[in-house]
Structures are given as structure tokens and as C-alpha cells.
Amino acid sequence: MVGQPLLEVQNLKLAFGGHLALADVSFELFPEEILGLIGPNGAGKTSVLNSITMFYHPQEGKISFKGKEITGLRPHQIARIGIARTFQHIELFSGLTVLQNLMVGRHVRMKSGPLASSLFFGKARREEIRHREMVEDIIDLLELEAIRDKLVGSLPYGQRKRVDLGRALAMEPELLLLDEPLAGMNVEEKEDMVRFIMDIFELKKVSVILVEHDMGVVMDIVNRLVVLDFGSKIAEGRPGEIKNNETVIRAYLGSSEA
Question: Using an 8 Å Cβ cutoff, are 71 and 61 in contact?
Fold first, then answer.
């Protein structure tokens, strides 16, 4: 790849007591790229995402976004600079509607103070209209119109995963971190989710780091792969290279046969 990386992860080390979750992990993500982050359960994939978003604070290493170090920022600051994520275990407000959950995602972009927002006049009104327009665009993109006014807690799992994706997209990210977005879905739901991810990537020009166990999907849509095992990076390359990498086959893929 050429040009300035969008994200740089350098020599990341993360430990919990005596357990080393990440050991000297380094990689780069470039603009308008989908990077797959794969490996066995417990390899450290989610720990990488949690470190990028500062849910975890690595003991060593450096993370830079658009050329500026972000290590040590707080999670809400990470969201404001343009990094959003979905979660392996859905983290939505089950007592709110789909529309309300999407509007929560706009919170990091809201500038009007509480008084102006409550009175809903002038600048605050114009801002509210702009946020609603952004959310309506997401509803159209992710085909949520039919469930927009339904409580999230009443929705089936696949639809809730789609709302989770929509809320992350509502933050207007330049980088989207997807933690097992296909987990627990049936074939039709997976096909829809992959289509939505590719629409976001192609239409919104959002770079993506994808953590996913469905290797058929991963190999089809990512530009490059980073492979972790026991907290260490064991390989990096294009899908064809990784598929035939003997170290990766032994650690994770299990077979070199196509």
C-alpha cells in the first residue's frame, strides 16, 4: 500500500495481571481499505479493538489516527475524531425505538447546549434537522424503515445487529470497527449484513476493520488480513497469501485445501 496510513498500531502490549492479551502487535490500515482481523478464539482480536477505542489502556505501544497519536484519549474523544464500532455482544438501548437509538449515535456530533436544544429554536433547530436527515439516510441505507418506531428490545437478533451497525454509522466515522457483525445470523441475514457493509464502504468511503470468523465472507470482501494467535501477530497479507500461509493454516484455518 502507498500513502499515509489512516491508522497505525505500533508495538501494542496489553496485559491483565499475569495474562498477556497482546504482545508487540503492529499493523497499519489505509484509507478506503477493509482490513480483516482474524484468529482463534482468545487470540486478542477484540482486545485490539478495545485498545483502539480506549476501552482498554495498553501498557506499551502507540496508536495513531490520521498521523496523530490517540493513545490515552477517552472513548468519547475517540468517537469524536472519527472512529466508531459495533460490539460482539449488542450494546443498544432496548427500551428505546430504532430511531431513538440511531439519534443517540448522533450525540457525539451535537454542538447545541441543553437549554437551546430543549427550547428547539434557531441554531439548535437547524442542527436537529441536520441530525434527523443523517439518521433518515441511514434508515434508508440499512433498510430499517419498517421497524423505525419499534422498540429495539422487541426486535429479532438479526435486526438488532443491523441497528447496532446503524448507530455506529450515525457517528459519521472515517473508521468503522466491526466486531463479529455476522455472529449468530442465518444465511439470509448474513448476506444482507455483508451487502450493507459493502454499501457503507463503497458509498460512504468508510474504512473498516473487520473481526469475523466466517472465513468465506472474510476472504471475499477484505483487502488485507492480519492474523493473531495467543496475542501475537503471526501473519499479514492479502487473502490469497494468508489462505496458503502454513503458519496460519496450523494455527487457525486448519486446511490448505481450497
Answer: yes
Q: Domain 1-82+173-258 sits in which CATH superfamily?
A: P-loop containing nucleotide triphosphate hydrolases (3.40.50.300)
Query: pLDDT tens digits, residue range 65-116?
Result: 999 999 989 999 999 999 999 988 888 999 999 999 999 888 776 665 444 4
Identify which of 66, 168, 192 has the alpha carbon closest to the alpha carbon of residue 108: 168
Rounded to a whole number of angstroms, the CA Rg of the chain reads 19
CA-to-CA dists, residue 145 to 48, 97, 119, 159, 204, angstroms: 34, 12, 28, 12, 19
Are residues 64 and 28 in contact, defined by beta-carbon separation less than 8 angstroms? no
Sketch the domain layout of the chain as residue ranges.
Answer: 1-82+173-258, 94-164
- The 10s digit of each residue's pLDDT in 136-154 is 999 999 999 999 999 999 9
Beta-carbon contacts of residue 30 (< 8 Å; ≥ 6 apart):
1, 3, 5, 6, 207
d(CA 169, CA 86): 9
